[in-house]
Fold each of these.
Amino acid sequence: MSYLVLARKYRPAGFGSVSGQEHVTRTISNAIQRDKVVHAYLLTGPRGVGKTSVARILSKAINCQNSTSAEPCLECATCKEISAGTSLAVREIDGASHNSVDNVRDLMDSFKGLPPPGYRHKVYIIDEVHMLSVSAFNALLKSLEEPPPNTVFILATTEVHKIPETVISRCQRHDFRALSVQAIEDRLSHVCAEEGIKADKESLRLISRLADGSMRDAQTLLDRVQSFCSGTITADETSRALGTVERRALTELSQALLSRDPGQVLAHVSDLFATGTDPGTLLREFVNYWRELFVAKLGGEPRLKAMGLGQDSIVELLRLTSPLEAVDIQDLWDLAREGADRCLRSGQPRYGFEALVVRMATRQPVAELGEMIATLAAQPEPAAAIRAKPAVQAAVEASRVASPRLEAPPARAAADTAPVPGKAASAGTPLLWEDFMRGASASAGKMLFENLKRVLVTRFEPGVVEGTGPEFNVTTIGRDKQKICALLNDFLNQKGLPSMPNWKVAFVKGKGAVESSASGQPGVSRSGSPEVEGHPALQSLQKIFPGSKVEQVRTKN
């Protein structure tokens, strides 16, 4: 007798033996118990998760002669015939090979007869239904909507997006999920116990992870590994049989990478490829391992357990990530994921992988800008820098013009602006437009203040203010001349000077403060002078950003 593969031998025979699809099996079981079986089901989901098995279990359950529940007895004649594939009441066809209109018409002709003796329903299972042609779908629509009362359609597909919406709307849809690693591992443990196969947990976990959510793929891989091994199945032999990467090798590679040792990293990569590892497999395993590191740092032990990892692997991942910051792990995870995608598309994946791991190993830790600024602010200034400050300020003051573009500055303390009692300013005291703007920032309206910021004052003395600016600002200032005069007199009083009854406020269209500031004159000091270059703040910035060049230094009073 020919060997029956594990995927067929251990195909689920009842709803209770279907792994990881309780949301589907419970719904269908309740419908059978309550006699609410619908005429058309659509089962969709990834490969190897139980769609066809559930379709066969459903066909047995609704025709079972002995069962009093939703589970088929598997002992009556109908159950045995359906399991053997010899039943005349259950017809299973492949959508890929029966995709024409003529095939659908032949199917429709068979609807007319009653079920064979001993059966209550005729069941039509169409696997890979998305392969039907458009004409075949159209011919099937009416039968799906109003079939004979003794007929049940079960459509199964892995690509539900290819099925017309008119077909989907006529069926009760059930979406199957990819199986978790833990669910697959539990099922494989049961199969090994039934077959007398000795396998350690690490090898079963490796097979479960490589199955990518498919129970059929996992059982097929177990068959392959069983044939390769002569005794107990171990993780090392499983890796050799399936051409995968040992977890120990990935751990050593990641440890060298996190230790910032490019030479050791390249040595580990060379050892991996020397064993004949497929580059695509290595890249996928590497990305999966770094995903586990990412989850270990951000989600901790609970999330790792939810991923189906063993306690030894969890301890190993937490140990590797404990000295690292979360932002560094996120950055490295992004590098690994994006770099692996590029390598898989490359014609030289090995060289791309070597460049990727060296880049990860030589990457500088992420430094928060806020922390750098706080560190600079906390550093005491050396005496030489304190002596250099007056020279820097003098250079900056000498480069200013009458009206720089100012953001609304905070008003100075009263001790700075109020005149000293008993000591009035002399008539020859020069007036600065900056001082006036500081005082006007609190008392002038927001619109007027913004317009005054954008004009360039060329003359400012008691009774006279002249300047140039953009046409819109000049026109708007002209409408507020009375208010400006009141502000100017308040400014003179603060300086200890008498008010002026008639102010000449003359602004004409021309160059404004914005253009003057852009030219590098007001409030801006060009880098290059020894005083500026020697300032400790600039030196600290250049240490943090080596190779950078400071072009301008803007001061704030």
Amino acid sequence: MSHPITILERYWNHTSFRPLQEEIITAVLNNEDTFVLLPTGGGKSICFQVPALIKDGICIVVSPLIALMKDQVDQLKAKGIKAMAITSGIPYTTLDTLLDNCIYGNYKFLYLSPERLQQTLVQDRIQQMPVNLIAVDEAHCISQWGNDFRPAYKNITILRQLHPSVNVVALTATAKPKVVQEIMTELDFMAPKVFQDSFKRPNLAYMVLDTHDKHYKIEQILKKYPGTSIIYARTRRATLELYSHLESKGISATYYHGGISSKEKNDHLEQWSSNTKAVMVATTAFGMGIDKPDVKTVIHINLPESLESYYQEAGRAGRNGEKAFAVILKNATDEQHLKNQFLKSLPSVDFIKQVYRKLCNYFQISYGEGHLTQHQLNFNVFCKTYNFPTNTTYNAVQILDRNSIISLSQQFNYQTKLQFLISSPALFGYLNTHKTFEPVIKAILRTYGGIFEHQLKINLNLVAEKSNVNEDRVLEILRQLEKDGIIEFQHSNTDSELTFLQPREDDKTINRIATIIEQQQCLKEDQIDAVIAYISDDTQCKSIQLLEYFGEKNNSPCGICSVCISKKVKSKPSQSKSISYQIIRLLENQRLSSRALVEQLKHSETEILETLKLMLANNILEITANNSYKIKHT
């Protein structure tokens, strides 16, 4: 048997493990049921991948996230390790072949969604596999009180029945004590080995800053703490606006959201990862599987929807152990916006039934039909078709996804199909008078066999690469070919791919999950309340607030968060007196805004603002109608 460190060196080029990894791997190798709670960036995947490579046989990995599955499979393949992901929408015959390959092809990892475990074919084939380990990723999804509960995770116990002697390792980054216990109970753990790293990040300064001008505040932060940054915005539109603003200010930035193509995502990620661009402005679609160690700041321009998601997103800063900053920017309207988006737009069970029926009608699914059929969805067009409110409908679709009624893969793509309508000799006759079209047409003919007989899906990007013509020009040529009657051509953009996971039964389908929906709505209310409490409490250390939320007690103040710094300023009257004197000198012959004072004084903004508050309270200063400060004359 290979030693774990040997495997780590061979495949990952590391010579030592991170904290707890080696102990976890030893427990897994000893066939113990193992629970792993490591914060974001703690290296959870190593904890099951290394022992699975040491043991003979194949490791079954259950994960709810298609993007994460594909990412891990690609990484394993790049290391020369045979791995496969079975996602939704694979035809039965292809699925049959893939599962056979797992049995006879010396594969080491099979990634699949929990929904797949409901299929008899999948169960039969897994029973025949030489399974060496069962790994449950994002294990909090099995708990009804976890962040992002997915009922399909209850199916995982089928694996224990198929392979009763194989041990299970459950992994998560965020789970409260109640959730940890439920995970182990649901997975039928016997004498579990529990490994839980502290949620404490001593090098990470959690800041909550009140500001009227968030864009200006971001500029200040990025200039004060230069380096790699992530800025999270709520919407695609806000992402693009902030990206454009930063670029206009000479700050090197790129952007990432669910509405850009895979090629753009990869290009933008590469620019940021290689430090060609310093700042990544993104929606929360960005970050899963990203392990860049030198991120200096993570800034939330909107309030997060839960402290679980905030902890994970903030935790992408400072993974190299150096001091880093996790900043939430807030203003007077943010609290109401958060409630409007996540509470007022929570759909009722009746509305979810209505959305489900309309989805079935939209894709012409007959009653009792639709199981595992795939469809391209343009969400905005769907909402306009039925006059549905966008936010509430989006939340309804998300609930259908989490509860395994549908599977929604949010990705921007062009679905392009074409077929040649004329014979091959006639086509080459056409080319004699359209020489500039030749590279594109020949690239299509050499890439897609049978395109004269059938309408086939084509990849525009691939055709563009092979013909050395840009994608817009390829599209222009295809449209001209359609006008000339040379091809039949379909081209539509979509922002989601939707798979129906159950046959259509209308209200019966939703009635089965109604209780779960209502319970999850209550959980969402609690999560929003927790976020508001966190941003509003300026008396207790921010790090302590987060640690107590996750069940860690008796912690000492971090000394570096916004609350701790504010307390330090208040406890230094001599420092405040010096700042007061400098402010008075600046205001002797002019009136200045707080922004101008911060720019001209060599003190931290927190110190200056606290001093201004004291000077106002003591009637030394007053605020003018245009929000500038002046000396108050008595």
Amino acid sequence: MKGELSKTPLKSVLLYARPYMHFLVLGLLFAVVSVTLTLYAPILTGQGIDLLIGKGDADLDGLVPILVRLGIIAGVTALSQWLMSLCTNKVTYLTIRDIRNDAFRHLHTLPLRYIDSHPHGDILSRVITDMEQISDGLIMGFAQLFTGVVTIVGTLGFMLSVNVKITLVVVVITPLSLFVARFISKNTFRLFKDQSVTRGELTSFVEEMTGNQKVVTAFCHEKDSYERFSEINSRLGKISAKAVFFSSLTNPSTRFVNGLVYTFVGIFGALSVVSGSGLTVGQLSCFLTYANQYTKPFNEISGVITELQSALASAKRVFELIDEKSESSDSDLDELVSCEGNVEINDVSFSYDPAIPLIEGLDLDIKKGQRVAIVGPTGCGKTTFINLLMRFYDVTGGTISIDGKDIRTVKRRDVRKQYGMVLQETWLKSGTIAENIAYSRHDATREEIVAAAKSAHADSFIRRLPEGYDTVISDDGANLSQGQKQLLCIARVMLMIPPMLILDEATSSIDTMTEIRIQRAFAKLIRGRTSFIVAHRLSTIISSDMILVMSKGKIVEQGTHEQLLENRGFYYDLYMSQFYNEEDE
């Protein structure tokens, strides 16, 4: 079924609800009890009316037991309705919980290509907003369908027991109501799907703008940002208005048809009473009540169509995410418990777009403990090279090996455990300082966490925080400076102490004095370990064992700093231009 969930969203939702069918069955039983008692009440009411309008004195003594039974029916009906709602809500929330868990779990299995090529706000909208739409639709849908179906069937049975001919009048007119509801609802799905897509676009834009508000403000783009937001919001308003207006035609249309049903029942029933054909006034009253109750579910079901269509449109978007193809399974691949740190790159090629080559014919042999720096202009393939090392992307040609093992024959998790990574863009989670440092090693002791922080020169500023290592920070570390956030990320890797390191401009957000201390700490950390350093400031990688100079996806030069300067090639021009720029500054 996986891979086809989005094609049949309703069937897919029911598939997720299957484990909780016992709650559905219980809900149906309580619905039967509630509807049966509700339908039995008009019979008692009719009997009571006949006792009051019969010839001679009204039979008040006979009315007392009827009133008692009506009171008991009211109490049991209320209890049954409450229990039915409890069961249907239980099914809904458990089903949505499972779908949301699967969606979020699946996000972790998707190739990085999917995450990079889709707006994060849209993904967020699918996992949160669309889930809420499904939940609202299911809660209303289950409750209305349960009571609606049972009420229709039960009412028909009670009406047939009172008068067959008038019941046939009701049954003949009913299909008209169904036809009207189907005709209108058939066209609402497309509108609600467009609404969900536009809502995801709006969420994505808001997430983008709020996450970069400082940049928006710095470049005075508030007006442009508002105009873009207003355009999407206006488009969402128009689509929503069309969807709601079109779907809202269902209820009044079916109510009109139901009004006709009630009118015909009243006319035929009155004629039967007047002609003395065996129908009493009390029975006519009972029949009119049944006619109203019979048509009511159609109104309710037509009213819930709006929610159901919206829920199905949202479900389609959620299941499209779940249907996305995961990374190929690596459960049967070899394990890589540890490594020496020898990396061999043989004739590697890679491109994000097959029509636009990026890396071609890349060859490299890196020995254990070597410090390799990667430099080059923006877009030359430095970050892509790191992505290939970590198996965030797989090569399209050639091989990358660790200690002689092709990394495509090893579990991705094991490959990534061999690297400690510090990126230019910091990432911190909501939690304490200690929890963020221990993100790389959940079993780390407080002493080990403090030692790692000291090695990263983060201990001093941490102890100045209100709660020290127990200070809670927000998910983006808004209450810390950029340099402090970077120090925590470095401490996280120092706690891990992996066989190999990847430093992508790791000290770019740190002041000069702190950077000197960090470089000393890194020198201690990388001793004996293979390390890859992506750098823009060439002054930070002068002492590297090997410098790879990349341009247009290829290594155009490699060697030590002194060798590359002697060659007076691409690196020489790059270094001298940066050196003179620094002098000018």
